[in-house]
Amino acid sequence: MTRGVLVVTGAGGMGLAVARRLGSGSRLLLADVDAVGVDAAADRLRADGYDVVARAVDVSSPDAVADLARHAGELGPVTGLVHTAGLSPVQAPIAAILAVDLLGVALILDEFAPVMAPGGAGVVISSMSSYFHPGVIAPDQAAALRSGPAAELLTLPVADEKNFADSGTAYSFAKFANRLRVQGASRTWGERGARINSVSPGVISTAMGRAELDSERGGRMRALIDGSAARRPGTPEDIAAAVEFLLGPSASFVTGIDLLVDGGAVAAVAARSDKENS
Q1: What is the DSSP secondary structure assignment for residue 34, as one 8-state letter?
Q2: Which one of the listed residues 50, 131, 175, 275 is annotated catalytic?
Q3: Residues 54-57: contacts with CB within 8 Å, 24+ apart?
């Protein structure tokens, strides 16, 4: 029996949680920009019985992403893709945020569409930050973000670095654009009989999440946690469970959407705003 290939980009907390939860019985292709880190993660998974191939990949490089997609197709039928790779505001300047979190997602969606097996599914990790994107995007710019050529994304007026006060605002924009891009990709993926959705995590207890909590943005993030219904940060396993649903047969009628997994933080902000404005 030919085993399906599950591709996971990003070997950090969420990526590893997804790989462990969903990788059993599949050929697992684990990719990350950090060659040493991805090899170490693959070794840990192999020690636990997983069949893993590790690749070092810069998702902002068109050639590297195209090569990753080709390699995935050579391993077998690609039945799942989970794109967790990304940069947070505390990790990188505006230009890098846009290159990895905006362009990188578009490249992954475009290059993997032709290699997805019928019945396959993918998930892009966005962020609850996308729901706080403050800008108004003109319809033509939204259309370009949704389905325009990936190579032109960073040249769009709406993606000009001068529009963003800091890495945090660039990050919110990029993650908002991810949701648009998933909408557009759902049509091309659908032509292959495959589905694509996104998940927007809230504050998650990963190394990246903890670094954000320790940054100057930490106070606002703690306020979001304290004001949420869950009153706790999420775990990588919370996100892996949501990904499992979207990749699985129970979500066979779900494509092109974003699933907000934030413990109720965004809803709480909206409710407080309504109360203050009443």
Answers
A1: -
A2: 175
A3: 54/30, 55/29, 55/30, 55/31, 56/31, 56/32, 57/9, 57/31, 57/32, 57/33
Active site residue 175: yes
Report the DSSP beta bridge partners of residue 27. Answer: 5, 51
* DSSP codes of every residue in 58-99: -TT-HHHHHHHHHHHHHHS-EEEEEE-----TTTS-HHHHII
Question: Does 231 have pLDDT greater than 60?
Answer: yes
What's the pTM? 0.94
Q: Which residues constitute the domain of residue 207? A: 5-277
Q: Give the alpha-carbon dihedral of 126, 131, 137, 143, to 10 degrees.
A: 40
Q: Is 50 a catalytic residue?
A: no
Question: Tell me: the pLDDT tens digits for 144-157?
Answer: 999 999 999 999 99
Given a contact cutoff of 8 angstroms between Cβ atoms, the answer to whether 105 and 175 are in contact is no
CATH code of 89's domain: 3.40.50.720
Please tell me the total count of domains within the chain.
1
User: Tell me: the pLDDT tens digits for 183-199?
Assistant: 999 999 999 999 999 99
Which residue in 50, 131, 162, 171 is the catalytic one?
171
- Least confidently predicted of 59-63, 250-254, 268-272: 268-272
Query: What is residue 274's predicted lDDT score, i.e. its pLDDT?
Result: 67
How much of the chain exceeds pLDDT 70, in percent? 98
